[in-house]
Amino acid sequence: MIMSNLPKISPTRRLGQSDIEVTSMAWGMWRFAGRDVSEAAQLIHAVLDCGITLFDTADIYGFNGTDGFGDAETLLGEVLAKDKSLRDRMILASKGGIMPPLPYDSSTAYLEKAIDASLSRLGVDTIELWQIHRPDILTHPQEIARTLEQAVQSGKIQHIGVSNFTQNQIAALDHFLDLPIVTTQPEISALRIDTMENGELDQAMVMDMTPLAWSPLAGGRIASPDDDRAHAVVKELDRIAETFGVSRTATAYSWIMAHPSRPIPIIGSQRADRIADAMDALKVQWSRQDWYAVLVAARGVPLP
């Protein structure tokens, strides 16, 4: 049987219609807070030493339901203040628009305040990518568009993205924008394949948005499968992992990256060894047969 290989995974990717090139994997900082500055600096260096350049954070990272709002950004800012050379080695991505405990707010007043607060906590003059974290259905997309455009014009942020937006919400915001939406951040994993079948990644390709895949290991279910479907997916991933001499998790990352929309998985681990292990994803060469075998296992039924 002829095995048709997919294109080899590139080590770098461009963020949508921007001129920013980043590594094909990002590092997520939602569990970054809660350590001292020295330990945090060591972890930042470990990530950079792996070759990762895209650092994904948010103003709400560090919030525990009561306090801690902004703690991840504050800690990163303290690290950058102690070693100013680090800033030039990374592309910063942050998010805002969630006002604890739950309501979403994308009004001009709130977004302007959120962007300024993130800049202050991080101790930087500009953020390369700023994303609305959750859609606020009570704010007209035209108001959001004007607010984001003004933030770009002022130099506070360089490019805009969205997170957890539906296709219609993306289309509505894009309609009122004079700037491109360069990224969209949905949940994508071998156990969360909705985006591949409901048109989300198709829209990303049409609009030239780079998908940033959050929870690429399905909240730990790839490492610890908990039902028949997860076990079936893991079986296929393990088969490929053994072929290329990499870990199951690295294989799971690479499966996402092989999609033609060129998604960038966000590594959630805060352990240097696991972050380094994740970079083995670039060693995997997928055939169409093998990639679809994982998809079929994830669907739980044969392809039509």
Automatic annotation (TrEMBL):
InterPro entries: AKR_Detox_Biosynth, Aldo/ket_reductase_CS, NAD(P)_OxRdtase_dom_sf, NADP_OxRdtase_dom. PROSITE patterns: ALDOKETO_REDUCTASE_2 (PS00062). It comes from the Bacteria. Residues 25-292 form the NADP-dependent oxidoreductase domain. Gene3D superfamilies: NADP-dependent oxidoreductase domain (3.20.20.100). This is Aldo/keto reductase.
